[in-house]
Amino acid sequence: LINLWFGENNVILLSVRNISFWIYLLINKKIFSSFMSLTKKLQSNVEEYMGEIADELNISIPFYPQVYWVGRNFSFKKIGVNGRDLEECYEIKKNSQSAYLAKYKIILVSENNIVHISEEAGHCLHFSKTNLHERKNSYIEERALRIISEMFGYFCSKLIFPERINEFAIYPDHVFEKAEFEKFSLRNLLDKEEFLIYKQGYDLGDLLFNAYVSREISKNEIRKLFLMDFKEPNSGLYTVINLKINLLNFEKKNIVN
Predict the structure, then answer these.
(1) First-to-final CA distance of the chain
(2) Residue 148, Cβ neighbours under 10 Å: how many?
(3) Rounded to an integer, what distance in angstroms lies between the CA atom of residue 130 and that of residue 114?
(4) Which are the contacts of 101, defined by CB distance < 8 A and separation ≥ 6?
C-alpha cells in the first residue's frame, strides 16, 4: 500500500486494485463519451436523410426513430426488444447488419456508413407512411411486400448516395431453381429466400432510380407508389410483376439506344 497524508488524520490508501479501478473508470468514461457522440451523430444523420428523402418525394415525416449503435456489448433487452425479435437482433449484430424495427420505431446500426444509414432512414419513412409491417398476408404476398420494401430502401439510399453500387447486380436474375440458389447465395451469407428477396428488391430499386433520374417515371408516380397501402389481395405481387416488366423494358430500351 501507498500512504498519502493530508492533514493529521486524513489518509488516502491507494492499492494496485484502487489504481486499476480508476484507470478502468477513466477508460470507460472515454469509451462512453465516444459511444454517446457516435449515437448522437447517427441520430442526426438519420433525421437529415429522412428530411432529404421526404423533401424529394414531397411527403411529410410522421416521426423520427430512435437510433442505436450496436456495439460489442450492446443490450437489446435494455431498449425493450423482446420475444422472437431478440433472435433477429442477435443475427443483425452477428452479421454486422443494420435494420429498422417498425414495431419499436428504432433503427439499429452496425456499420457506420452512409449506405446503411440512408437505407434504414428510407425504410423508416416508407413504413411510417404505409404500415406494411402490420399486414397479415399470404406467404407469396408477404414476400412480394418485402421485395417492395427492399426496393424502396435501396431507392432511398440512392437518393442520398447516388454512387452506391448494387451488390446483387453481379448475380444472374434466374435464381428461382434450387441449383441456382445453391450457386448464387452470396457465399451462404443469406439463406435462399432472403437472397431472392434482396436480389429482386435491390435490382428493382436500381432500375427505379435509373428511370427516375432519366425522367422515364415522374416524381408523382414514385410518390404514389411509395404511399401505396397494398390492402387489396395480391396487390403487392401484381405491383412487383408490373414493375419488373416495365422497368426492364425501360432498361432494354436504354441499352439499345
Answers:
(1) 84
(2) 27
(3) 24
(4) 81, 85, 88, 89, 107, 108
Question: What's the rounded Cα separation, in Å, for the pair 42 and 212?
Answer: 28
- What is the spatial distance between Cα 214 and Cα 218, in angstroms, rounded to a whole number? 9
Global pTM value: 0.80
CA distance 198 to 151: 8
State the average pLDDT over residues 124-143: 83
- pLDDT, one tens digit per residue, over 142-167 is 888 999 999 999 999 999 999 999 99
Cα–Cα separations (whole angstroms), residue 245 to 25, 128, 140, 158: 60, 28, 18, 21
**Which segments of 96-191 does DSSP mark as H helices, in order?**
114-130, 139-160, 178-183
The partner residues of 67 in beta bridges, in order of sequence, read 107
Q: Look at 192 and 93; give whichever has higher pLDDT.
A: 93
Residue 35 has pLDDT above 70, yes or no: no
**Rounded CA separation 33/45 (Å):** 18
Contact indicator for 107, 198 with CB cutoff of 8 Å: no
Dihedral Cα 43, 48, 54, 59, nearest 10 deg:
70
Secondary structure element (H or E) that encloses residue 67, with its range: strand 66-69
The predicted pLDDT at position 34 comes to 59
8 Å CB contact between 180 and 199? no
Which residue type occupies 138? S
Phi first, then psi, for residue 130 (nearest 5°) are -125, -25
Map residue 23 onto helix, strand or coil.
Answer: helix
80: left (phi over 0), alpha (psi -120 to 50) or beta: left
Q: What per-residue string of b and e applies to 8-30 under the rule 16 or more CB within 10 Å gives b?
A: eeeeeeeeeeeeeeeeeeeeeee
Cα–Cα distance for residue pair 108/166, rounded to 1 Å: 21
Cell numbers standing for residue 41: 451523430
